[in-house]
Amino acid sequence: MNYLRVNVVMRILLTGASGFIGAHLALRLHSEAHEVFVLPSPRFRPARLARAGYTAVTHPAEARAEVVYHLASTPMSAAIPDREHEAVILGGTRLLVEQLSGGQAPPRRLIFAGSAAE
């Protein structure tokens, strides 16, 4: 029996795109022909995404994404105070959700992945 595989191309927003998991996910999504958008942070490392096609946005709603992978976090380090982890992880997630829900077409899915810093 032959099954028809339908490839659905989606608009996908990544936060934490230049981290270890984010960079690999960006490359995979790009290889599957999805439209990949990234929300760069001050720690953004574009060299990590050299082989992945993507568009950088300054506001999450700009991407008009159907799916958001929220991978942004802080690195696990004793040198980073707990308050900074809290501000980035909790505060950043809250801000992202607020900004996405205020758009005309919020995403259908929000996938959140934590880190060891949590």
Structural overview:
The structure is a single chain. This protein is α/β, with parallel strands linked by helices and 118 residues long. The protein has helices spanning 20-31, 82-101; strands at 11-15, 35-39, 55-56, 67-70, 109-112. A 5-stranded parallel beta sheet has the order 3-2-1-4-5, covered by helices on one side. Helix 1 (20-31) links the parallel strand 1 (11-15) and strand 2.
Topology summary:
Layout: E1 11-15, H1 20-31, E2 35-39, E3 55-56, E4 67-70, H2 82-101, E5 109-112
Parallel strand pairs: 1-2, 1-4, 2-3, 4-5
List its traits.
globular; 118 residues; five-stranded parallel sheet; alpha/beta
Could you give the count of β-strands?
5
- How much of the residues is beta strand, in percent? 15-25%
- What integer value in Å does the Rg equal? 15 Å
Order of helices and strands: EHEEEHE
The dominant shape is globular
